[in-house]
Amino acid sequence: MSPIYVSEVLHMIICKNRTELQTVVTDIQSQGKTIGFVPTMGALHKGHISLIEQSVNQCNTTFASIFVNPIQFNNPLDLQTYPRTIESDITLLEQAGCDVVFIPEVSDMYPNGTAQTESYNFGTLETVMEGAFRPGHFNGVAVVVKRLFNLIPATIAYFGLKDFQQVAVIRALVEQERIPIQIVACPTIREADGLAMSSRNMRLTPEQRLQAVQISKTLFTAQQMAQKNSVEDVKKFVINTLNNVPLLSVEYFEIVDQKTLQPVNTWNNPCVGCIAVNVGMVRLIDNVSL
Fold it and tell me: What digits encode the pLDDT tens for the residues 176-224?
């Protein structure tokens, strides 16, 4: 049992491989404790911590994982430059009351390599927005989430609504695979000026950071415009406004049905405005209800 590292500060257990993790999981299950789970790719911020805190409030035991999943990146440069702040991540998790963190290597998650993995079909959920611009992304997400759920038999798993489409895909995965886990989607956490918190914000230069806030400001304006203006007019406003901001380039802005994620032409059903914007070389996403 000695390979498992227990933090000397707040006694959070740190598991570095499947064997260590299984030992901890077996012990917790034997005590009949509920497990809350927050999967992450690290570079943690207050958004991630809000998920941990909700788990701590609702479950007997809280697990987190830190794993930069290579198969969900279509851009090798994005994978290479994704922020990695493992020491500060561990400190933040400890302070938030996390009980166990799993920090595997790629070989732990993909013992047979990353070339051949499971294949999922989420229909139209994965063909729009992020799915259209990042082919294979959601299959990569589904593969790693399913494997993590197999390793950590959680009662509840927590995800942030900043990744609105990802939450929909994970709900579909749980339904397809009949995984006995509750998915809880938590509100997007924002900086004081409104910018959605994201690990990729760390890569913004000071000038880019100043301009990036225009993303959320424009989306909030779109919220006020919705219903009083046509869907097409709101889309044009958002895209034109942001493309006129220095350093910003809109990759897509779609107004979609809240349930199906399919683009809409009218305001008949609850809608979400989802956006991806390149701020220099940094790609940011956000969304608002409309």
Answer: 999 999 999 999 999 999 999 999 999 999 999 999 999 999 999 999 9
Can you give the CATH number for the domain in which 144 is found? 3.40.50.620
Q: Which domain holds residue 108?
A: 5-186
Residue 208 falls within a domain, yes or no? yes
With bands split at pLDDT 50, 70 and 90, how would you rate the model's confidence at 10? low
| Predicted structure pTM score | 0.94
- Listed residues 154, 186, 218: the one ending a domain: 186
- State whether 181 and 207 are in the same domain: no
Strand 5-6 with 61-66, pairing: unpaired
In angstroms, the Cα distances linking 41 to 99, 133, 203, 212 are: 18, 21, 15, 22
Whole-angstrom distance, CA of residue 98 vs CA of residue 55:
9
- Give the model's pLDDT for residue 9: 46
What pLDDT shows up at residue 124?
A: 94
Q: Is 11 a catalytic residue?
A: no
Residue 140 CB contacts under 8 Å (≥ 6 apart), including other chains: 69, 71, 72, 73, 117
Among the listed residues 11, 45, 48, 137, the single catalytic one is 48
